[in-house]
Amino acid sequence: MTDHWNAIRGHWQLLGPPLRPPAEAVETYERELNLSNAHVVLLGVTPELAGLGATMTAVDESSAMIAGIWPGDTALRKAINGHWLDLPIPNTSVDAVIGDGCLSALGLSTERKALFAAIAGVLRTDGRAGLRLFAGPETPDDPAEVRAFALSGGVSTFHELKWRVAMTATGDAPDHAIPVRTIAERFDALFPDREELSARTGWDLPVIGTIDVYRNSPAIYSFTPAPTLVSEAEAFFGDVRIASTGGYGLAERCPLLVLRAPRRRR
Ligand SMILES: C[S@@+](CC[C@H](N)C(=O)[O-])C[C@H]1O[C@@H](n2cnc3c(N)ncnc32)[C@H](O)[C@@H]1O
């Protein structure tokens, strides 16, 4: 999995919403979780979220991502190497946990539940968490409709199109998973002529080329419907809700999953 993220780091500057959180999504974390005085754990090293909270520990398994995109440690903020399912953070020690797209980086429902358990374990009793979702529809989208929508100029960014293509081919419950290389194969089948796609949408060919890093990836993503994630989370939190993150392209499928009242395991 770290190889996959190392490859993505190479074109990080070409990425954009909805993969990277726009300002209105960053404001949603602050508004929903009241972070200004909080000790925050960030899952991953998403630079847009690095300024939130009073103090922050970011946890990422990829030292290349930490070196490549984390804005740098300060007296109040640091990034450490670690796995989210075995968080190198003491139990009941943090006010808030945040993360962007983390649940989609896990391909199995059992891994998602393990992440909810890990988050509940490190939060204080009054702690809260916010995870921006990449949530698929209950029924996969029709590929022909996605193609027509893109060619008519209805898709805001190439990155939104990547997610829409993935959401035509996501597997069944409980995992709702798709191998990342399958996203590239589906894209090639739907859009064999990249120059036509570029001409119709105005997207630069190097941006469209960011799909190519998916071709040899061993990673598996998941695009689980939001109601399923809410019910998975309710086993670990007494208070689970969904908050809109704004009006950018695909925002309706990228809400913030807000988790409060962590349940203590006996
Ligand atoms: C936060 S996620 C998603 C970021 C962004 N929103 C996107 O979709 O491209 C990406 C980061 O998570 C890290 N990551 C993925 N799975 C991880 C895991 N199980 N433990 C620790 N870090 C992980 C990767 O190394 C990468 O830096």
From TrEMBL:
<dbReference type="GO" id="GO:0032259">
    <property type="term" value="P:methylation"/>
</dbReference>
<keyword id="KW-0808">Transferase</keyword>
<dbReference type="Pfam" id="PF08241">
    <property type="entry name" value="Methyltransf_11"/>
</dbReference>
<protein>
    <submittedName>
        <fullName>Class I SAM-dependent methyltransferase</fullName>
    </submittedName>
</protein>
<dbReference type="InterPro" id="IPR029063">
    <property type="entry name" value="SAM-dependent_MTases_sf"/>
</dbReference>
<feature type="domain" description="Methyltransferase type 11">
    <location>
        <begin position="46"/>
        <end position="128"/>
    </location>
</feature>
<dbReference type="InterPro" id="IPR013216">
    <property type="entry name" value="Methyltransf_11"/>
</dbReference>
<keyword id="KW-0489">Methyltransferase</keyword>
<dbReference type="GO" id="GO:0008757">
    <property type="term" value="F:S-adenosylmethionine-dependent methyltransferase activity"/>
</dbReference>
